[in-house]
Amino acid sequence: MNTKTVTRLAAAAVGAATLLGATFAVGQQMAFFRIGTGGTAGTYFPIGGLLSNAVSNPPGSRACADGGACGVPGLIATAVATNGSVANINGIESGALESGLTQSDVAYWAYSGTGVFEGKAKIENLRGIANLYPETIHLVARKGAGIKSPADLKGKRVSLDEPGSGTLIDARIVLSAYGLTEKDVKAEYLKPNASGDRLRDGALDAFFFVGGYPTGAISELATSSGIELVPIAGPEAKKILADFKFFGPDKVPAGTYKDVEGVETVSVNALWVTSAKQPEDLVYGVTKALWNDNSRKLMDAGHAKGKQIRKETALDGIGIPLHPGAEKFYREVGLLK
């Protein structure tokens, strides 16, 4: 699905939701549920597409028992391309989105009014639907750029991702752990696909990306021009883990990207979040649809990270309250007591 198609779908969803009052109740024929994702070259966008397929069940669809949609009856969910975590949370708060994907660190900061949200109003209506999968911090370097550690980024041309992205926040944390700030690098603020293009052309030395591996933009870059992954390890990484409890140790295995050695790094969790203002019945239905057998098949076949989206880890590392609808489902299946 290209960006124009997503934009048309989103526009249609917004218009129809406005006409219908954007509410959900038993007996309503149609409801819309927008899922804010990220750039089209990242991991959030295809995962958002899988989620929308899993929970959608438009009017007139064949019944699940007949091989049709197994989602919420009458629901049309759409994956909307955005600038990522921060933008999705702001969209949920403003009502421009019904839900979105976000990093666990960004969700915690938004809800508590700390970190990058310090001095701003707490987004107290932010609620969790599920933890999805680990999001790995990639530091991608141009082959031969001489970057063996984040400390080597000093004076280099580095993309930190767009304003509003969780990647930008985490890139700043990594730089700080290695004694650097944005002023110590020649910082640019580009989406992953634009960063890849500039790296390939020799106009960029490195870029940060936070997302599930493998991601399309990095895979294509590794195949077409060759890259190196820079480890985020050693005492600096240990300090990150000690200072920020929502990070965990991680590793990108060798061969994940063509001819690229494995590296140690750190990761956060990818969460699916919504607003406390969303109806309990709706979010209960969405959560239940996420974890049915049909959705399991979609996740396993749809993306490498889809296999890591497991009901058994749905409550790991969320860090914000669950939506009552999601909480109801997890209690029913015994994941909450």
TrEMBL record:
It holds the Pfam family NMT1_3. Transmembrane segments: none annotated. CDD domains: PBP2_TAXI_TRAP. InterPro entries: TRAP_TAXI. It comes from the Bacteria. NCBIfam families: TRAP_TAXI. This is TAXI family TRAP transporter solute-binding subunit.
